[in-house]
Structures are given as structure tokens and as C-alpha cells.
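During the reporting period the student researcher (J.K.) took over the structure-prediction task from the postdoctoral fellow and processed the backlog of single-chain submissions. One of the processed entries is reproduced below for the supervisory committee.
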Amino acid sequence: MKQNHLFILGIIFLSIFSCKSAKESVLQFQTTAPFEMVEPYYNAWVGGIESAGSGVNVFLPLKEDLGRVTVDSIHFRGEKSAVVKRDQLLIGRFKYSRVHPKKLIMSSNPHEEYGNTLPSKTDRSPFKLVNNQCVISYRVNDKRLYYKVLNLKSLREIAYPSAPPQKQ
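J.K. obtained the following C-alpha cells:
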């Protein structure tokens, strides 16, 4: 009976430490970029109407084809965004809503709080970055890797004065 307890305790001990080491290795950065980029940059934008919101777009111009690399997300300023690929350009779009959230009803009576909705959950990034850095999350041969891009160039903010024309 005592051997069974020691065996179970040993398995629990090993599983706890193996999980911790796996998580730590996932968040390590690669020292070389998976592909060559030409002056990565970002620019902020703001919509002309309140409901349009505002945001930041991160642009990573590619010098060469990605090959076997599959880039799936970009982490920037505490947020995570899916990557859009257009020709030789990777784009991460980070949108911030300017719409004021609906006020919550706080009451000791739960029936009065019935109309409250949960706040929307943003896709947070596990990386601590300064404002001009981003992290590229990518896969090579089904292995997830990360590369930190330093010193992104900031371009002038784009102000969109109105909604785009409707197609007819």
C-alpha cells in the first residue's frame, strides 16, 4: 500500500514539473527571424464616426516567400491578432472600440440585474512588450515558435473622416 502511495505521488510530482517546463519552453523567442522582412512598421487609425472605433495595424513587408513557415498571429501592445497575408505583406489588425459600454445595474436584488451582459473578452497576449515591439507566432513542421520584432517604425495616424461609399 505504501508503495502505491509513493508511486502516485511520484507521478503527480513529475507531471507538475513537466507541465511547467513545457510552458516555459513555449514562450522562448527564436534568435533569428523565420523570414526576411523589409522595415516592419505600424500605424494607428481612427474612424470618423463614434461606432467606427480606432485601432492599430501592424505591417510586416516580406523580402521573400514564407516557404514552410505558417504565420498565424501577431502579438502587439498586450493584444493578439490573426494574420492576414496579402502578396508579400503580413498584416495584424488591432481594433479598439470607442463605443461606451452599457452601464451595469448593480443591485442586491438579482432580478434587477437580469439585463446585464458579460463584457466581451479580448484575446490577450502573454508577452510583455514595449510599444514599438511585436511578436510573430508561427509554425514550422507543426512546432510553434515565436520571434520578437524590435523597433517597429511608427507611421502617421490615418483619420478616416466618414464611412466608405456603399457598393450599389
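The committee noted the following: The chain is about 15% helix and 35% strand.
J.K. will present the remaining backlog at the next meeting.
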